[in-house]
Design goal:
- This protein is α+β, with helices and mostly antiparallel strands.
- It has helices at 12-30, 37-58, 126-135; strands at residues 3-7, 9-10, 63-67, 71-75, 80-84, 88-96, 99-106, 112-117, 140-142.
- The strands form two sheets. Strands 2-8-7-6-9 form a five-stranded mixed sheet.
- The chain starts with a strand and ends with a strand.
Length: 143
């Protein structure tokens, strides 16, 4: 039985680059404003929600996860990764403040990581996928 789940993932490298680039740019621009330092710090702090929003929107990478009795497939618009169930050692879901980190540990290969994002996003199928993974033949851990 095929089960398909829409998960809001993001490209973590692009997110971090965009976040810090915008933060340093705003900080640099505020250094040229003729105000006391405390006001410049407050200006930068007040722009952090907008910086987070822009960084998340720029780095969005929605994915479709398909679980079958034979494989787990993670599909992005430009890439599809297929993990045969027999080659998966275990899967971990690590809860983070902005979402989850899914780590797929393979028996013979290095682990693969996917970042699920819940900031500025509509609900996805994370809970449904959690239940399906618990019922599957994959050893699944949620921390």
């Amino acid at each position: 039985m095929n089960q398909t789940f829409q998960i809001n993932t993001l490209h973590r490298g692009k997110y971090m680059l965009c976040f810090f680039l915008l933060l340093f740019t705003i900080g640099g621009i505020s250094s040229y404003i003729p105000l006391d330092e405390i006001y410049k710090i407050i200006i930068v702090l007040l722009t952090i929600p907008a910086i987070l929003y822009i960084a998340v929107k720029v780095s969005q990478r929605p994915s479709i996860w398909t679980l079958t009795p034979e494989s787990l497939t993670v599909a992005f618009s430009e890439q599809v990764s297929v993990y045969p169930i027999i080659e998966i050692d275990h899967l971990r879901s690590l809860t983070r403040s902005g979402g989850n980190l899914y780590v797929i540990y393979m028996r013979k290969e290095k682990p693969t990581r996917y970042w699920r994002n819940k900031l500025f996003q509509a609900d996805d199928d994370n809970l449904l996928m959690h239940e399906a993974l618990l019922q599957s033949n994959i050893e699944y851990f949620k921390f």
